[in-house]
Amino acid sequence: MSRISQTFAACRAAGRTALIPYITGGDPDPQQLVALMHALVDGGADLIEIGVPFSDPMADGPVIQAACARALAAGTTPAKLCEAVARFRERDEATPVVFMGYANSLEAAGYETYVERAASAGVDGLLTVDLPPEEAGSLPDLAAQHGIELIYLVAPNTTAARLQKISAVAGGFIYAVALKGVTGSANLDTTLLADQVAAIRRVSQLPVAVGFGVRDAASAGAVAQVADAVVVGSALVQLIGEHGEATDLPERLRAAVAELRRGIDEKAAMEVRS
User: Fold this and answer.
1) Quick check: 250 and 38 in contact, CB under 8 A?
2) Residue 55 and residue 135: Cα distance in Å, rounded?
3) Catalytic residue among 27, 29, 46, 49
4) What are phi and psi of 169, to 5 degrees?
5) Is residue 130 annotated as a catalytic residue, yes or no?
6) Which residues lie below 8 Å from residue 166, measured CB to CB, with a gap of 6+?
7) Residue 113 CA to chain centroid, in angstroms?
8) If we measure between CA atoms, which residue out of 14, 20, 51 comes closest to residue 209?
9) 272 pLDDT exceeds 50?
10) Architecture of domain 3-273 in this structure
11) 60 among known catalytic residues
12) Going by DSSP bridges, is the β-strand pair 97-101/48-51 parallel, antiparallel, or unpaired?
């Protein structure tokens, strides 16, 4: 059983909605990534999503675009991110790590090199925003050979037929985009979100993680009512952008994640009491 599957199984057994924080790898600089990853786990993260910085992150809003620019200016590369994950694994063998990025990074390195390097470092999943299953080429076979799961996004307007197709090839979990727009957008509609998650569950046995538009403890708690996992990115990336030079940045990040964890767990406790 993969680390991702083990983690979701443990969360289900504990009645716990998983928390997946996203940070842009290499922001504010690659040397800080390991400390920030441990801070995420200390704050209550169940899985970690690391953004692979790219010069044209089309799915991301201005906060993550700026983080990508900072990370690239600091000399971040996919190889350096893998080195950081390997160092993270020296202390943490349990927490799954997913790389979220764009096809350009894989193509620049070559699929085989990219996958082998990620797997050797201890990366568990790849979410490549602009690489749909039809265009994945040799990637699924390479990922399977190296024990890496391919994770796919589904949108609010993804059709049932498309959901079935994605479900047939996806691994790890399904990432449900909660709204139309880029990362950091607002105005979550939990009623529509519940319908979206239900539609995914009709065709997939994989856990459903929801992201885009989750920005605080209240919205995380609301999403936790319908999803198996909550993904929070822009709010954490903004914190890093504002306090990147602070010596207590890891502690600030840990506290922010702990607050999100509290919002999720308090909502679960209220449901049990009711």
Assistant:
1) yes
2) 21
3) 49
4) -115, -10
5) no
6) 133, 152, 154, 158, 174, 204
7) 22
8) 20
9) no
10) Alpha-Beta Barrel (3.20)
11) yes
12) parallel
SS3 state at 26: coil
Largest CA distance in the chain: 53
Task: Give residue 185's pLDDT.
Answer: 47
3-state SS, residue 21: strand
Under a CB-based contact definition with an 8 Å cutoff, are residues 166 and 154 in contact?
Answer: yes
Given the residues 27, 46, 60, 265, the one annotated as active site: 60
Where are the chain's structural domains? 3-273
Q: How far apart are CA 126 and CA 149, in angstroms?
A: 6
Which residue spans within 46-135 are E strands per DSSP? 48-51, 97-101, 125-128
Whole-model pTM over 0.90: yes
Residue 72 CB-half CA count within 13 A: 13
Tell me how far apart the alpha carbons of residues 185 and 62 are, in angstroms, rounded to a whole number: 10
Peptide bond into 57 cis (omega under 30): no
Taking alpha carbons only, the member of 57, 223, 215, 76 closest to residue 127 is: 57
Quote the tokens at residue 215: 């920005």
C-alpha distances in Å from residue 39, one per residue of 83, 218, 229, 238: 18, 21, 19, 16
Q: 78 preceded by cis ω (within 30°)? A: no
Q: How far is CA 235 from the centre of its chain?
A: 13
pLDDT tens per residue across span 243-258: 999 999 999 999 999 9
